[in-house]
Amino acid sequence: MTALTADARGVYPIAPTPFFDDGRIDTASIDRLTDFYLGCDATGITVLGQLGEAPKLEHEESLAVATQMIRRAGHLPVVVGVSAPGFAAMRALTREVMDRGAAGVMIAPPNSLRTDDQIVGYYQQAVESIGADVPFVLQD
């Protein structure tokens, strides 16, 4: 997969993670959802957004959802949300999804940050953690 660049443009919808009533991930619906975005001519797909279900998933579940979408999306770039309470978890998920073909990652700052300097400092630490070579998207 080609990595995102600063001139990326278009629509990258944030895909919901589908679940069964008992809390298991609905993998068949991940495929249908990915096919839907492909059929709508989306420019790319974003998965595991921070404001939804992603923070509730275990690492292996997040990796499985991202991997399935990356494989199904084919040529379409997939950006994976990797926000986590700590940089070690963020780094681990980033490395694994990038190895599986993600075009980049998406990072949201903790809601406890109050000033611009705190937010800038957080993103500097995040980049040091995931690696300066990994393209990332800011999630509001």
Corresponding CATH architecture:
Alpha-Beta Barrel
Q: Count structural domains.
A: 1
Low-confidence stretches: none
Strand content of the residues, in percent?
A: 5-15%
By CATH, the topology is: TIM Barrel
Q: Note the main sheet.
A: 5 strands, parallel
Share of helix among residues?
40-55%
Mean pLDDT: 93
Helix-strand category: alpha/beta
Widest sheet: strand ordering: 1-2-3-4-5
Number of strands: 5
Please describe what this structure looks like.
- The chain has 140 residues and is of the alpha/beta class.
- Strands 1-2-3-4-5 form a five-stranded parallel β-sheet, covered by helices on one side.
- The protein has four helices and five strands.
- It has one domain: Aldolase class I (TIM Barrel).
- 40% of the residues lie in helices and 11% in strands.
- Helix 2 runs parallel beside helix 3 (87-99) and helix 3 (87-99) crosses helix 4 (116-130).
- The model has no long low-confidence stretch (mean pLDDT 93).
Helix/strand layout:
Blueprint: E1 14-15, H1 27-39, E2 45-47, H2 59-73, E3 78-81, H3 87-99, E4 104-107, H4 116-130, E5 136-138
Parallel strand pairs: 1-2, 2-3, 3-4, 4-5
Helix pairs in contact: 1-2, 2-3, 3-4
